Amino acid sequence: MLLISLLTFEFSIASFTQSLEALVESATGWPGVGIIFIYSFLIAFVLPGPSEIVLIAPLDLGLPPWMHLSSIMLVSAIGKAAGSVVAFHIGQEVKRSGPIIQWIRRSRWGVLEWSEQRSVQLAQRYGYGGLAIALSVPFFPDTISIYAFAVLEKNYTKFALATFFGSLGRLMVTVGFFGGLSMTF
What we know:
Strand content: under 5%
Low-confidence stretches: none
Number of domains: 1
Shape: globular
Structural class: mainly alpha
Number of helices: 8
Order of helices and strands: HHHHHHHH
Radius of gyration: 17 Å
């Protein structure tokens, strides 16, 4: 019964994530800014999706293209930093809850152990800068890194700043990579 409940929950999260991604892909105007914020907020602590999807939102705010992209990146980084504070609080509570960690280990995310090891190494070596580095890697599930750091660290403000700069860095790396590819081809 518990297994069926967990599978249903994972299916529901995946379905919700797909719906929200479709909403982001069609987000326009100022309400679209709110959609990007909400998506980025949720991606930080609950949704197992790509945060880079916000870059293709057709906001159309009447701004020059560079401001359009900058606005998306800034709103997304702020949303993810806010969501990371929620994740940080949850992580502080998870330190005391073994069953949650066991459920995460059994979930469909097979990269948890690898990610935890890398995140712990980065945290031990570079502190909050390590979190920003981990979050700057495009297309890597940042929720895992955020929770791994949340369990290790204690300062909410530094944690939020690290996730802000890491998220902003990730979007900049993604834009730089795909911008370079488009110039090549």
